Structures are given as structure tokens and as C-alpha cells.
Amino acid sequence: MIQLYTDQSPHAWKASVLLEELELPYQAHHVRMALKEQKRPEYLAISPWGVVPTIVDPEAGDLAVIESGAILIYLAEKTGRLLPQEARPRSEVIQWLMFHTANIGPTQGGADVLQYEVPKPIPEAVEYFRERTLGLYAVLERRLEEREYLAGAFSIADIANWTYVGTSEWVGIGLEPFPNLRRWLGAMARRPGCRRGLNVPIALDPDAVPAGFEKYRRYIEIVKSMLDR
Asked: Would the pTM of this model clear 0.85, i.e. be above it?
């Protein structure tokens, strides 16, 4: 059984969403980044960089796979699903997966870090990353004009982009100018595997957030709203 080490974040949810979509048996382990559990020696032994998600596959000699994009490719190839074998459709899926890992993830993530995690946020820098993210959303909007999903059929490329684009409100980005993107988000939210995957490692419950963590409570509310599109 696949062992999944994860937390509540758009980066980590990619792995749990894919595992649910593939209906692969797995066991989830909650690595609480807020408590720095990802830096404990026992976790660093399987994930040297100390990040989530990480999977361990006992069927492959306890192979540990880090980096969400690598995990998506590994699980898709393991099952022969959501990543075509034919050269052209396979290339399209990988291109849009890389579009996320090289662009959407770092750029939207930069807006997040500069807005919420640095000691003294720099408004001009936050706005720069927001504008760059909007430009990337415009690329996705054009891509989805005549396609239900990014590579035509549902694939790992959609999973990778969805967990970030769906939380755009967290970094102050509205989706009103992007009707195709909103339609795609709705299609993703209606998929049972996607819905289940967002409730790993624990359920999306704003009321369960401890007092004093209002910022985190708001974040969970935004993520939960992804499923109401």
C-alpha cells in the first residue's frame, strides 16, 4: 500500500487528489508543517529536502518519491492512467504539468509567501506576483476555449493546476475575467476523487481550526469553497 506523507496545502493535495482519482489504496500520514514535523530526522530520512508531499511505494522496494510533479508522473505511469502513452497526447499532458510546476506554482506561491509569510510584506512585490499570476491564468483561459480539460481529456495536468487556481482568492485574485477557467474549476470540483482528495489528511472543517488561527481558518474556508463552484 502506498504511504502518503502530506499536509493541508495546494502543493500536497495534488498527490491525494490523484490517489483518490486512481482509487489506489494508500495510507495518509499527517506531517504538520506548522509544527516543523517535516524537519524531523525520521522524515528527512525519506524526504531529504523536508517537504510534502512524499510517497513511499512498498511494491517498488520502498521507493520514496518527492516533488509533487514527480509523484503525479510516477503514479500515472504505475497505473497506466491519466498520462497517455501515445507521443502527442503524452507530450501535451507533460507540457501543461510543467506549465504548472515552472510557472503557476512558483508565481502564485510567491504572492502567497510575500503576502503572508515574510516579516514585512512589500505591497509592490505582492502586486507584481499577482499580475504575473493573472497573466498565467490568461494562458489557461485561452487553452480551455475549446477543451473540457487542459490536454483534452482529464489528466494529471488538470490536477496540478486545479489545487492552485482554485485557491486564487487567498492571494487576492478574482476569476471574473476568466469564464473558461471558472467552467473548468466547476468540472474539477464535481469529480468525486477531487473532492475526496481535498479532505486528506484531515477534513476541510473551518470550525475545527483552533482559536487564534483566524488566518488559517479563512484559508480552509476558501479551499472548501472550491467544492461549491
From this structure: yes
